[in-house]
Amino acid sequence: MGISLAQIRDISHRMTLSEDGDANEKKYGKIVTELFPNYEIFWKDFVVPCTNRVEIEDKNNIFERVHTRETVSNDIIDIISLHYSVFTNLAISHFHLESIVNKQGLDLLKHQFAFEGFYTHLCSASDIAEYFLQQVYLLLLECRGQESRKLQKMKKENFLNRADKWYEQKYLKGYGDYLDSGKPITMNIPPQTPDVLDEYYQGSEDWKNYQRFIGPIRYYRNVIIHMPGMGILLDIDEKGDIYLLVPKKEKVGEYNKWSKYLSNIRDANRKEADFVKTEHQMSSDIENTEKLLNALWKKPIQDMKSLVWEEANPCLLDKYDILLT
């Protein structure tokens, strides 16, 4: 049984993560949305209508309220699950940061676990965010009867032209990287998610800023995960407390192998220039990630609102099982 558009507007706008979210959203909602408020805006407008919250008023009935309505289409459910996964990975990143900031004493293994876990989940949040944005874009295209130019089947001539450009631009460097690290090189057909999002965001500064930032974060994560104990230094502050230093993100390429680390660390001046407290690097990176995701969320929010409220798009309303009356 469908619910009316007027009911949706009235109910969803009264919802908040702190009052109507699940246990994780209630605990970490304020922390995540401090710099990422558009997460909650999308949640109110396009996640809440998928759930039993619009039909069950009793806030104590948490388990039933957060479940999706049975008549909502599977592709919508998959999209909102991606949205929630972005949140949970950011929340786990905050948890790891808190465990370092609030440390009692110093357990090197626990500290390293939190440091590695932080960047693992921060990068997972960005990976899932990109996939979420792509799926929203494809949903918008479907509901408007359009197709992505990036996802069209290529003719043999176009494929060979692309392969020729890939060889000239990427093969030699990729071959060298393979010899150095053992990581294979690939030519992605069809395009990867970022290529589709290039089409969606059409060269916007928000998308460019995000891409410039997230590449070094992923490289930093890869060095941390594949080189346990990466260049960690112990130091003592003026109070006599021991703390840990790690290479700054922009310097990590100079410490991505133990041979480089051992060679560079012999220069005492490099410690101050190249290293930073773990919690300082982590705080900076999650703050910037959430700000950049917040900027990216503006477009899908506006586009989805346009489909629902301005166009009353029948395809999208049917997927949500929303009535016009």
Structure in words:
By secondary structure, the chain is mainly alpha-helical. The protein has two domains: 227 residues, no CATH class; 38 residues, no CATH class. Helix content is 65%, strand content 5%. The protein has a three-stranded antiparallel β-sheet with strand order 2-3-4. Helix 4 packs parallel to helix 13 and helix 7 runs antiparallel to helix 10.
Short description:
Helices cover about 65% and strands about 5% of the residues. The protein has 14 helices and five strands.
Distinctive features:
325 residues, mainly alpha, three-stranded antiparallel beta sheet, two-stranded parallel sheet, 65% helix
Number of strands: 5
Fraction of residues in helix: 55-70%
Structural class: mainly alpha
Biggest sheet layout: 3 strands, antiparallel
Basic shape: flat
Count of alpha/pi helices:
14
In what range is the share of β-strand residues? 5-15%
Q: Radius of gyration from the CA trace?
A: 23 Å
